[in-house]
Specification:
By secondary structure, this protein is mainly β. The protein contains one helix and ten strands; from the N terminus they run αββββββββββ. A hairpin with a 6-residue loop joins β5 and β6.
């Protein structure tokens, strides 16, 4: 046998081995069972919804204790009693445990801002000024502050 044949055979095997594509290394396995807990920040609370009656609206229907930790707030009070045929109204406020008080006497539609004295349980009454009939009323609520 020729001495070149075994040499060519060895060279062919070596070249064939070199021409094969290398297998990429496997992805590392990560153990997530000991991963730290998420430190994501909770989204801010949603704004307090308005309170709406038939003729009366409070821009904020509840005291948000995150914004008002003392439990007192101001809000815009809007009314429109024109569809009831009323020309003039009175707005009365009553805090829990207190007497009802006249806050405003005006035309049948408008908006006024209260002072920072509305609290959980405060009632707002819309009164027909001509006969004293209560047309609408709303009660202020409260939303706790979750700072977790």
């Amino acid at each position: 046998m020729n001495k070149i044949t075994p040499l060519l055979l060895a060279l062919s095997i070596a070249l064939a081995a070199c021409s094969q594509e290398a297998t990429p290394p496997a992805e590392p396995v990560v153990d997530t069972s000991t991963a730290p807990a998420s430190t994501a920040v909770a989204p801010p609370p949603a704004p307090v919804e308005p309170a709406k009656g038939k003729y009366l609206t409070l821009a904020e229907g509840a005291v948000d204790l995150c914004k008002h930790p003392q439990g007192l707030m101001a809000t815009d009070v809007s009314w429109d009693a024109t569809s009831a045929g009323v020309k003039e109204i009175e707005l009365h406020l009553q805090n829990p445990g207190e007497e009802r008080k006249l806050w405003a006497a005006t035309i049948a539609n408008g908006t006024e801002r209260t002072g920072e004295w509305l609290r959980n349980g405060t009632q707002v009454f819309l009164i027909d000024r001509s006969n004293g009939a209560t047309l609408d009323s709303l009660t202020v609520g409260e939303r706790p502050c979750n700072t977790q």
